[in-house]
Amino acid sequence: MRADAKRNRDRIVEVAREVFRERGYDASLDDIAKRAGVGPGTLYRHFPSRDALLDAVMQAWVDRVTDATDKALVYEGSPREFLVSWFETYVALISLHKGGPAKITSAMGVEDSPIATKTRVLLTQTQRVVDHLRAQGALRDDIDALQLCRLAGGVAVVADQGGLDADATRPLLTVLADGLLR
Amino acid sequence: MRADAKRNRDRIVEVAREVFRERGYDASLDDIAKRAGVGPGTLYRHFPSRDALLDAVMQAWVDRVTDATDKALVYEGSPREFLVSWFETYVALISLHKGGPAKITSAMGVEDSPIATKTRVLLTQTQRVVDHLRAQGALRDDIDALQLCRLAGGVAVVADQGGLDADATRPLLTVLADGLLR
DNA sequence: AACCATACGGAGACTGTCTCCGTTTAGCAA
DNA sequence: TTGCTAAACGGAGACAGTCTCCGTATGGTT
């Protein structure tokens, strides 16, 4: 890749991160291009779709997901507390920008999605949580990591779109936890 | 209201119902106007926003919700089976057109929403289900009808956006039911 | 220095939203 | 029936966002 191309690409991602956070996932792409000081053509060449851009923006986010799981797994406490706390982390992670929960959760398990690399990481980390719980025999066995993501994702979507805060979301997550454990 | 106005209004609602079902909630409103044989101005005068039109389209739907609850409440069986079956009904009802679950669930509990009349009916009927379960002492008591709608709505959104069929959705709903009952 | 593959960027086609306003008409009163 | 007017119509067009095409500019190489 030519030096000027890389410079522009990086700058677009940087600006897009800000704008997505400020204005949500619906922000105008031409506007992002303008703010980054490039033409729309340049943006669309680097990122053929909105999702492709989002995928790039989320690159750094992937590391946070893994870190968060590492931290969660050393937690000492009841499976219920562990699971609720991990759900809260999960919801927070996918709610970093408006529209995120819907975007991510509906792409979950869809291999040819433009953000498949990201959902795969999320799924892998959830699998670690599932394994951890199974090792204790605490998790019902008709549920896998994908379904767990969908359940938590569903709550996250509702919280995101309905403007629920953490206190309003927690009881919903405890219901999930209680339904999942045995 | 003048006779021609009523005629046009009815025709727009009728066409919108078809188009929303065919193409989802994002269908072009100008297109609906065209199919209904009226100008866009006429459509926008009758229905200032997409939501206002959706609200009108859903009018008939309200009766189905009440009917469905009536039927569900005479069900004889365990609370678990009852709740799962009612969840399935609930999800089906709000999934009648694409985007419906997200639209309805995020409006749930928001009094000044354009479709507030519809969510209120849904909430009232859910309350009947809650009362029914409470009478049997089967429902945990930190959860109300609104939260129940949000949980089921969350699953419905995921199912809608992720293209899950009834078989893939059922296990998610059983988790909810198990988490809600005691 | 010359070359050219690569990249740029902006004009503009296209689509959807929504408004304004000149035209038409339903319903009523004389 | 006729005439009047408020109500309703509808379409041109302003505006915004998406996305492409293509003439121009330039980084990297020989």
UniProtKB/TrEMBL annotation, chains A, B:
GO MF annotations in UniProt: DNA-binding transcription factor activity; transcription cis-regulatory region binding
Keyword terms of this UniProt record: DNA-binding, Transcription, Transcription regulation
Matching SUPFAM superfamilies: Homeodomain-like, Tetracyclin repressor-like, C-terminal domain
HTH tetR-type domain boundaries: 6-65
Pfam families, sorted: TetR_C_43, TetR_N
DNA-binding region: 28-47
UniProt keyword Transcription, yes or no: yes
Protein name: TetR/AcrR family transcriptional regulator
